[in-house]
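Title: Comparing notes on inverse folding

I've been comparing how different people in this forum approach sequence design from structure. To keep things fair, I'm posting one structure and asking everyone to reply with a full sequence. Here's the target:
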């Protein structure tokens, strides 16, 4: 069962009433070890553990140089993100993933300028 703050609060209250870990785990349909972890976090910090905050890999901050390179690459070649990834790697010698290129908003009106006719064969030299 997925735990939220209300369920964690209930688990802690049951432990304070001296209900067994096994009984709590069966009632909440979670493992005994997870009940023990929640209780240990509560005893150590004195606060209920929070669930769902600061999860996952932290985002890499916005880099002005990368934005400039992506904008310049888009102005030159007018490629989508996946082709622009290859172009940027070959021409500017910087590796920027296509997902990150999407983050910079390369196709917005602010980054559009007059495209120059440059052959695609440049990338495969």
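Reply #1:
Here's my take.
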């Amino acid at each position: 069962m997925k735990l939220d703050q209300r369920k964690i609060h209930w688990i802690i209250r049951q432990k304070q009433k001296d209900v067994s870990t096994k009984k709590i785990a069966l009632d909440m349909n979670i493992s005994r070890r997870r009940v023990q972890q929640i209780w240990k976090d509560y005893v150590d910090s004195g606060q209920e553990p929070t669930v769902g905050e600061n999860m996952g890999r932290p985002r890499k901050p916005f880099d002005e140089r990368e934005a400039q390179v992506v904008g310049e690459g888009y102005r030159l070649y007018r490629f989508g993100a996946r082709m622009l990834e290859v172009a940027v790697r070959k021409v500017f010698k910087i590796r920027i993933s296509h997902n990150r290129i999407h983050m910079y908003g390369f196709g917005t009106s602010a980054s559009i300028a007059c495209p120059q006719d440059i052959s695609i064969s440049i990338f495969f030299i």
